[in-house]
């Protein structure tokens, strides 16, 4: 140690001077360096053991299997094929699709033909949900095109679309539907439609429906190729009459008067307004001459 270094060491506080002397002694100790070298060799050996032996054995490095394509197959068959490849299966329930058989695989992850490690989990989405129920809207009076769009937007299928045998004053508009408005149908169900081709070419005579129940009055008008618009005088006005019947209890309502006088001649398909009441004593006696023997069309 030089004279200057020794002079500086003498000026250090006693604890620091003692620590410096211990460190100098440690650096001159051959056992310290031997132990440090041994620990280093042990760490390097452990690293190569884990990297070259244990990890490849655990991860099966370089080994892979191909995921089979099981889409559109039944879940049980798909499960067998996947497990035969030393893979695991996880079932997931997807949104119900009425166009696909139940318990059919509609999606898989990883995708088909992917290379994965043995034991990897494959997620299978199965068509097993419940079909939601849709309330059928009232399509009467709207165009055929709009009716088809509404049916499709609800997840329903359009069935037969045919001209109605009973004429109507509004061509290419819906006059009938099946199921009826307000009914329920599962998604994917079919809705049949009938549309108007316009008024008929024949001239018919308006019958007298006063005093009859709404149900019988309708049948009587249909027998003459005429359409009924049922109104309640307490809530509806003839000037803004709806294009479709509005009553829901035709067997308990009676026709008080009608918009077209009996014996008036009109074209087939003309709409006849029926003003109704719940009071059977407030209606005239039915015309005994007008027979009602025709069944509903």
UniProtKB/TrEMBL annotation:
InterPro entries attached to this UniProt entry: PASTA_dom
A Pfam short name: PASTA
Transmembrane segment boundaries: 31-50
Region described as Disordered: 162-187, 231-297
Compositional bias (Polar residues): 241-253
Record keywords, A-Z: Membrane, Transmembrane, Transmembrane helix
Start and end residues of each PASTA domain: 62-128, 130-197, 200-278
Keyword 4Fe-4S: no
Domain of life from the UniProt record: Bacteria
Keyword match Membrane: yes
Stated name of the protein: PASTA domain protein
Species name: Salinibacter ruber (strain DSM 13855 / M31)
């Amino acid at each position: 140690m030089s004279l200057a270094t020794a002079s500086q060491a003498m000026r250090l506080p006693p604890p620091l001077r003692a620590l410096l002397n211990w460190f100098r002694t440690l650096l001159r100790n051959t056992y310290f360096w031997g132990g440090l070298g041994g620990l280093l060799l042990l760490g390097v050996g452990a690293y190569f053991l884990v990297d070259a032996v244990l990890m490849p054995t655990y991860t099966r490095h370089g080994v892979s299997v191909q995921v089979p394509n099981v889409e559109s197959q039944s879940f049980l068959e798909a499960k067998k094929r996947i497990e035969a490849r030393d893979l695991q299966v996880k079932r997931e329930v997807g949104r119900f699709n009425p166009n696909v058989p139940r318990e059919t695989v509609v999606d898989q992850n990883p995708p088909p033909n992917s290379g994965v490690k043995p034991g990897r989990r494959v997620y299978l989405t199965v068509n097993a949900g419940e079909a939601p129920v849709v309330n059928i809207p009232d399509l009467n009076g709207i165009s055929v095109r709009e009716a088809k769009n509404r049916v499709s937007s609800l997840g329903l299928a359009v069935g037969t679309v045919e001209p109605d045998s009973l004429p109507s004053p509004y061509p290419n508009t819906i006059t009938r539907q099946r199921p009826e408005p307000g009914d329920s149908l599962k998604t994917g169900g079919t809705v049949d439609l009938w549309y108007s081709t316009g008024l008929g070419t024949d001239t018919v005579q308006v019958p007298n429906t006063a005093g009859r129940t709404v149900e019988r009055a309708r049948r009587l008008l249909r027998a003459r190729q005429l359409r009924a618009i049922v109104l309640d005088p307490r809530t509806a006005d003839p000037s803004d009459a709806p294009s479709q019947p509005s009553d829901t209890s035709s067997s308990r309502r009676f026709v008080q008067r009608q918009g077209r006088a009996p014996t008036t001649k009109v074209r087939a398909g003309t709409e006849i307004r029926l003003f109704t009441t719940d009071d059977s004593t407030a209606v005239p006696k039915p015309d005994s001459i007008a027979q009602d023997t025709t069944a509903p069309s």
